[in-house]
Amino acid sequence: MLLKNKIEELKRKGFVKERYNQILLLKARGFSVRDIKNITGLNRTTINKYLLYYEYTFRSYDSVRVNSKQEPYYKDEMQYSSIPTYNYDELSESEKEFYIDNLKLNN
Fold it and tell me: Domain range for residue 37?
Protein backbone atom coordinates (compact mmCIF):
# COMPACT_ATOMS: atom_id res chain seq x y z
CA MET A 1 0.00 0.00 0.00
CA LEU A 2 2.93 2.30 0.68
CA LEU A 3 4.14 1.95 -2.91
CA LYS A 4 0.67 2.76 -4.24
CA ASN A 5 0.60 5.91 -2.09
CA LYS A 6 3.97 7.02 -3.51
CA ILE A 7 2.68 6.45 -7.05
CA GLU A 8 -0.43 8.53 -6.35
CA GLU A 9 1.74 11.27 -4.85
CA LEU A 10 3.92 11.29 -7.96
CA LYS A 11 0.84 11.66 -10.16
CA ARG A 12 -0.49 14.52 -8.01
CA LYS A 13 2.81 16.40 -8.11
CA GLY A 14 2.87 16.35 -11.89
CA PHE A 15 3.94 13.19 -13.62
CA VAL A 16 5.96 14.21 -16.68
CA LYS A 17 6.00 11.55 -19.41
CA GLU A 18 9.16 12.92 -21.08
CA ARG A 19 11.04 12.89 -17.77
CA TYR A 20 9.82 9.34 -17.12
CA ASN A 21 11.01 8.16 -20.54
CA GLN A 22 14.39 9.87 -20.11
CA ILE A 23 14.97 8.22 -16.72
CA LEU A 24 14.01 4.79 -18.07
CA LEU A 25 16.25 5.22 -21.09
CA LEU A 26 19.24 6.19 -18.94
CA LYS A 27 18.56 3.31 -16.55
CA ALA A 28 18.33 0.87 -19.47
CA ARG A 29 21.70 2.11 -20.71
CA GLY A 30 23.21 1.12 -17.37
CA PHE A 31 23.51 4.48 -15.62
CA SER A 32 23.23 4.47 -11.84
CA VAL A 33 20.79 6.68 -9.94
CA ARG A 34 23.69 9.02 -9.10
CA ASP A 35 24.59 9.36 -12.79
CA ILE A 36 20.95 9.96 -13.74
CA LYS A 37 20.79 12.62 -11.01
CA ASN A 38 23.80 14.42 -12.47
CA ILE A 39 22.50 14.20 -16.05
CA THR A 40 18.89 15.25 -15.42
CA GLY A 41 19.37 17.58 -12.46
CA LEU A 42 16.60 15.84 -10.51
CA ASN A 43 16.98 14.71 -6.93
CA ARG A 44 17.35 11.04 -6.02
CA THR A 45 13.90 10.84 -4.45
CA THR A 46 12.18 11.91 -7.65
CA ILE A 47 14.23 9.49 -9.75
CA ASN A 48 13.45 6.63 -7.36
CA LYS A 49 9.73 7.46 -7.49
CA TYR A 50 9.75 7.29 -11.28
CA LEU A 51 11.60 3.95 -11.15
CA LEU A 52 9.13 2.65 -8.55
CA TYR A 53 6.28 3.73 -10.81
CA TYR A 54 7.80 1.64 -13.61
CA GLU A 55 8.21 -1.40 -11.35
CA TYR A 56 4.66 -1.01 -10.02
CA THR A 57 3.14 -0.64 -13.49
CA PHE A 58 5.07 -3.43 -15.18
CA ARG A 59 5.35 -6.00 -12.42
CA SER A 60 6.15 -9.52 -13.51
CA TYR A 61 4.68 -12.42 -11.67
CA ASP A 62 6.74 -15.48 -10.91
CA SER A 63 4.26 -18.17 -11.74
CA VAL A 64 0.87 -18.83 -13.22
CA ARG A 65 -1.06 -21.76 -11.82
CA VAL A 66 -3.66 -23.60 -13.79
CA ASN A 67 -4.26 -26.22 -11.17
CA SER A 68 -2.12 -27.83 -8.53
CA LYS A 69 -1.52 -31.51 -7.97
CA GLN A 70 -1.86 -32.79 -4.45
CA GLU A 71 0.02 -36.03 -5.12
CA PRO A 72 3.81 -36.22 -5.09
CA TYR A 73 5.59 -36.40 -8.43
CA TYR A 74 7.61 -39.45 -7.41
CA LYS A 75 6.61 -42.63 -5.62
CA ASP A 76 10.12 -43.67 -4.56
CA GLU A 77 13.72 -42.38 -4.64
CA MET A 78 14.66 -44.28 -7.80
CA GLN A 79 12.34 -42.03 -9.83
CA TYR A 80 14.10 -38.78 -8.78
CA SER A 81 16.38 -38.77 -11.82
CA SER A 82 13.54 -39.14 -14.33
CA ILE A 83 11.07 -36.62 -15.68
CA PRO A 84 7.62 -37.08 -14.15
CA THR A 85 5.08 -38.69 -16.48
CA TYR A 86 1.33 -38.84 -16.07
CA ASN A 87 -1.33 -41.24 -17.11
CA TYR A 88 -4.60 -39.76 -18.36
CA ASP A 89 -6.53 -41.74 -15.76
CA GLU A 90 -4.48 -40.18 -12.94
CA LEU A 91 -5.51 -36.62 -13.86
CA SER A 92 -8.27 -34.79 -12.03
CA GLU A 93 -11.48 -33.82 -13.84
CA SER A 94 -10.42 -30.20 -14.30
CA GLU A 95 -7.03 -31.31 -15.68
CA LYS A 96 -8.77 -33.68 -18.10
CA GLU A 97 -11.04 -30.85 -19.30
CA PHE A 98 -8.04 -28.57 -19.77
CA TYR A 99 -6.20 -31.28 -21.69
CA ILE A 100 -9.17 -31.93 -24.02
CA ASP A 101 -9.76 -28.20 -24.61
CA ASN A 102 -6.07 -27.75 -25.41
CA LEU A 103 -6.18 -30.63 -27.89
CA LYS A 104 -9.23 -29.09 -29.60
CA LEU A 105 -7.50 -25.74 -29.96
CA ASN A 106 -4.27 -27.16 -31.38
CA ASN A 107 -5.72 -29.79 -33.73
Answer: 2-57
